[in-house]
């Protein structure tokens, strides 16, 4: 049977593409039999090419695209494999994941669900990290009622704090200059024996 497939692929001008893809899949850790089947399926999904001897056997003379070695994000590749046909695969990873889906759909879809849950959790964690600087509430939570008496008592301190925050950079530069001046003065005093 393999000899018949080889003869057919040579006649269709797909033999070199098949061998190249099969070797790439084997180099990526796929078993030889699986690599053979996956490569055959991929080249069969492509239109026939002219034979090496130039005989007109192809309806479409464009060469089949070669799979690339690009590494995409795992979840994106899994979504591609589930939603698109094998002929749309452009990377070895997509072809490998398609074989995984075919051989172990429960494991593949379970892993995809785990990754989607992790991605959603990461988004929720990033959202929950945002808090109000005034009262510490998270998005979606209501702010506590304000205490007018407390605000009245803290008004002078809050005004000082607001003013300080507006001039923070100036203050830090001043502090740095003062610290450097004090360090020089202390060193001069130590050097003069006082």
Written description of the protein model:
The chain has 194 residues and is mainly alpha-helical. 65% of the residues lie in helices and 0% in strands. It contains 8 helices and no strands. Helix 2 runs antiparallel to helix 3, helix 4 crosses helix 5 (92-103) and helix 5 (92-103) crosses helix 6 (105-128). The relative contact order is 0.07.
Question: Short description, anyone?
Answer:
The protein is an all-alpha fold and about 190 residues long. Helices cover about 65% and strands about 0% of the residues. The protein has two domains: about 1-105, no CATH class; about 150-190.
SSE order and pairing:
Layout (H helix, E strand, L loop, with lengths): L1 H11 L2 H13 L4 H13 L29 H10 L8 H12 L1 H24 L19 H19 L1 H25 L2
Helix pairs in contact: 2-3, 4-5, 5-6
Structural class: mainly alpha
pLDDT averaged over residues: 74
- Envelope shape: elongated
Alpha carbon gap, first and last residue: 101 Å
Number of DSSP helices?
A: 8
Kindly state the percentage of residues in helix.
55-70%
Low-confidence stretches: 56-62, 68-72
Number of strands: 0
Write the element-wise H/E pattern from the N-terminal end onward.
Answer: HHHHHHHH
- Radius of gyration (CA) equals 34 Å
Question: Main beta sheet, described?
Answer: none
Strand content: under 5%
User: How many structural units, i.e. domains?
Assistant: 2
């Amino acid at each position: 049977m393999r000899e018949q497939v080889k003869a057919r692929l040579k006649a269709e001008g797909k033999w070199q593409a098949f061998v190249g893809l099969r070797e790439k899949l084997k180099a990526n850790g796929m078993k030889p039999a699986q690599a053979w089947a996956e490569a055959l399926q991929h080249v069969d999904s492509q239109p026939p090419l002219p034979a090496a001897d130039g005989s007109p056997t192809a309806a479409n003379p464009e060469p089949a695209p070669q799979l690339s070695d690009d590494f995409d994000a795992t979840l994106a590749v899994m979504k591609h494999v589930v939603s698109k046909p094998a002929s749309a695969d452009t990377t070895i990873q997509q072809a490998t994941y398609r074989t995984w889906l075919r051989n172990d759909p429960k494991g593949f879809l379970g892993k995809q669900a785990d990754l989607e849950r992790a991605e959603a959790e990461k988004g929720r964690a990033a959202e929950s990290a945002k808090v109000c600087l005034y009262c510490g509430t998270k998005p979606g939570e209501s702010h506590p009622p304000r205490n007018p008496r407390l605000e009245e008592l803290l008004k002078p301190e809050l005004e000082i704090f607001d003013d300080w925050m507006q001039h923070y950079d100036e203050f830090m530069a001043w502090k740095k200059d003062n610290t450097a001046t004090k360090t020089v003065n202390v060193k001069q005093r130590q050097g003069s024996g006082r």
